[in-house]
């Protein structure tokens, strides 16, 4: 049976798992951990949770697994797909090296053949013998040329395939190697997943967009210095974030954070904590110590809206904060 209330398709059977029943079960799992003397860290709790769930009523167990499925992603499938692509790339690279090696050997053979023919030609005085030597040399050249052409075609074909695989890997990557944080694609996907969870469980999460203020960048004469400043910001964001937060580079000079289960007040505190940390950081560039300042845009994630809407509002709030010389601006999601 499907309930279409609020135009959201929610399994009516899943609703039968009351909040109280789930809370009672969760406490039971925690009590079991304590009684067994096992540290109640997240990993241990998850193991005990799933083990104890097997002892519950089949209907209850089914509905809880449905709820868990909403929070689980297809990360394993993505990892397998990524590994397959990576192995294909290694295979293509290995094949390329093999064919390049053959081309090298053929080129070497051609050079040796030419040297031999030149030595023989130096001692020939008879025209017929010279013509015979030249003809033999031409035949050898044709054989080598045919082999070289075949190898070059193979190299071109394998190279094209490898480039396509590498482009696909790059397109689906989640990491920004320059700054050591997640990239824009991963961040957007995480927001979409979080919105799905919010639509289901009705909790509150927030996102913030952060950048070093332009007044700081204007003091720098090189792109390298700007990159170093942004790296400092990225490191401090990682250092001050929780394990559940998602830190990413979003655009040029703009970073973002997804703060799960965090309301506007919590997001404000995060920005203030980040501002304090970065203002206390000692950064020396181009012969002087820089006083780093940030601007931020904050938006709370709501039900029934898409990720792009929230991103637009966060960037708009960031722009206003920069323009008005404020630490942050809060943009309403409505």
TrEMBL record:
Gene3D superfamilies: 3.30.70.270
Cited InterPro entries: Diguanylate_Cyclase (IPR050469), GGDEF_dom (IPR000160), Nucleotide_cyclase (IPR029787), Rev_trsase/Diguanyl_cyclase (IPR043128)
Highest taxon above the source species: Bacteria
PROSITE patterns: GGDEF
Molecular functions per Gene Ontology: diguanylate cyclase activity
Pfam families attached to this UniProt entry: GGDEF
EC numbers on record: 2.7.7.65
Domain GGDEF span(s) in chain numbering: 205-332
Catalytic reactions on record: 2 GTP = 3',3'-c-di-GMP + 2 diphosphate
Protein name: diguanylate cyclase
């Amino acid at each position: 049976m499907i309930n279409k209330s609020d135009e959201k398709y929610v399994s009516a059977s899943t609703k039968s798992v009351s909040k109280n029943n789930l809370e009672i079960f969760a406490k039971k799992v925690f009590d079991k951990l304590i009684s067994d003397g096992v540290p109640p860290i997240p990993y241990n709790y998850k193991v005990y949770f799933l083990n104890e769930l097997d002892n519950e009523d089949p209907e209850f167990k089914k509905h809880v697994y449905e709820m868990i499925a909403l929070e689980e992603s297809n990360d394993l499938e993505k990892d397998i797909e990524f590994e397959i692509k990576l192995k294909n790339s290694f295979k293509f690279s290995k094949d390329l090296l093999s064919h390049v090696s053959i081309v090298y050997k053929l080129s070497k053979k051609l050079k040796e053949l030419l040297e031999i023919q030149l030595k023989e030609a130096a001692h020939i005085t008879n025209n017929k013998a010279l013509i015979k030597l030249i003809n033999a040399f031409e035949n050898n050249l044709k054989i080598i040329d045919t082999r070289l052409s075949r190898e070059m075609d193979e190299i071109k074909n394998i190279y094209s395939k490898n480039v396509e695989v590498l482009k696909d890997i790059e397109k689906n990557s989640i990491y920004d190697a320059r700054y050591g944080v997640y990239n824009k694609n991963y961040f957007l996907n995480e927001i979409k997943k979080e919105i799905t969870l919010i639509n289901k469980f009705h909790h509150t999460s927030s996102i913030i967009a952060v950048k070093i203020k332009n007044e700081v960048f204007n003091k720098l004469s090189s792109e390298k210095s700007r990159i170093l400043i942004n790296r400092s910001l990225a490191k401090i964001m990682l250092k001050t974030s929780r394990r559940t937060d998602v830190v990413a580079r979003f655009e040029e000079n703009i970073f973002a954070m997804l703060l799960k289960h965090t309301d506007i007040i919590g997001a404000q505190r995060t920005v203030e904590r980040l501002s304090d940390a970065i203002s206390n950081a000692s950064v020396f560039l181009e012969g002087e110590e820089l006083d780093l300042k940030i601007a931020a845009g904050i938006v709370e994630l709501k039900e029934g809206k898409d990720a792009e809407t929230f991103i637009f509002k966060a960037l708009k709030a960031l722009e206003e904060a920069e323009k008005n010389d404020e630490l942050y601006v809060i943009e309403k999601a409505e």
